[in-house]
């Protein structure tokens, strides 16, 4: 059975815009189109969409999801088993957090006492999710190099580095409505590239382009970037991709 994009969006609880984005990046391209240009999704497309949404719930980037689903060794049954296990663990952790909230309220109202350990039951965010994503995509080298560079600066140096980064972002955010191909924008995005290269690892054109894609494919990054202005993450992804193309010419 073939379904139109609106029907699939309603069925899966996602927006039509999301499905269009998945199609545009090649993550989920519908089986066919009508003569009028309407996308038509097959049962196999729905199975792939289900996998995408499971992986998204577990924090995988769209790029990583695409790599997994397109791998010749991908086994859907095995993937479902692993996803089930991971989601059960997540449910248990959320249950503990809900219980901790209830205990905390009672503690505030004087109904029970909580020790320090009980106050944090259910939490377990030890690793930085941004760092985890970078490690998955490019390996340990870039992350470790950047960490060593930052740690060697000392408190004052790290503060100055943060101010420099913030200044670059503010400068670029002020250009986000301009053509990312323009000389002015490309000069500024070059400053961002140079800044990253000074952090202990040289970003190749592909790595630089990949970082830009992460800004729009991972909602955590998009939310963080767009604090500088709506559409900033998308603008950065486009400008960084253009610079990467020029460097490879």
From TrEMBL:
Keyword Transport appears in the UniProt entry: no
Keyword field: Activator, DNA-binding, Transcription, Transcription regulation
Keyword check for Cell inner membrane: no
Gene Ontology terms, MF aspect: DNA binding
Pfam families membership: MerR_1 (PF13411), TipAS (PF07739)
PROSITE patterns: HTH_MERR_2 (PS50937)
PANTHER family from the UniProt entry: HTH-TYPE TRANSCRIPTIONAL ACTIVATOR MTA, REDOX-CYCLING DRUG-SENSING TRANSCRIPTIONAL ACTIVATOR SOXR
Domain of life of the organism encoding this protein: Bacteria
Location of the HTH merR-type domain: 1-71
Matches recorded under InterPro entries: DNA-bd_dom_put_sf, MerR-type_HTH_dom, MerR_fam, TipA-like_antibiotic-bd, TipAS_dom
Protein name: DNA-binding transcriptional MerR regulator
Source organism per UniProt: Bhargavaea ullalensis
């Amino acid at each position: 059975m073939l379904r139109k994009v609106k029907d699939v969006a309603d069925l899966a609880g996602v927006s039509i815009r999301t499905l269009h984005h998945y199609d545009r990046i090649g993550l989920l391209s519908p089986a066919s189109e009508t003569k009028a240009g309407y996308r038509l999704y097959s049962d196999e497309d729905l199975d792939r969409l289900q996998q995408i949404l499971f992986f998204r719930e577990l924090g995988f980037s769209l790029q990583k999801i695409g790599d997994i689903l397109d791998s010749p060794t991908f086994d859907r049954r095995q993937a479902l088993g692993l996803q089930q296990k991971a989601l059960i663990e997540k449910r248990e952790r959320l249950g503990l957090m809900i219980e901790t909230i209830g205990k905390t309220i009672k503690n505030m109202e004087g109904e029970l006492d909580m020790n320090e350990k009980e106050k944090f039951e259910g939490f377990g965010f030890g690793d930085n999710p941004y760092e985890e994503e970078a490690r998955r995509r490019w390996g340990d080298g870039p992350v470790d190099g950047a960490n060593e560079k930052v740690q060697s600066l000392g408190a004052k140096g790290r503060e100055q580095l943060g101010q420099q980064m913030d200044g670059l972002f503010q400068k670029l955010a002020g250009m986000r409505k301009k053509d990312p191909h323009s000389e002015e924008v490309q000069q500024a995005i070059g400053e961002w590239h140079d800044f990253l290269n000074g952090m202990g690892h040289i970003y190749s054109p592909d790595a630089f382009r990949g970082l830009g894609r992460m800004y729009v494919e991972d909602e955590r990054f998009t939310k963080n970037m767009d604090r500088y202005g709506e559409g900033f993450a998308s603008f950065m992804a486009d400008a960084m991709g253009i610079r990467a193309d020029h460097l490879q010419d």
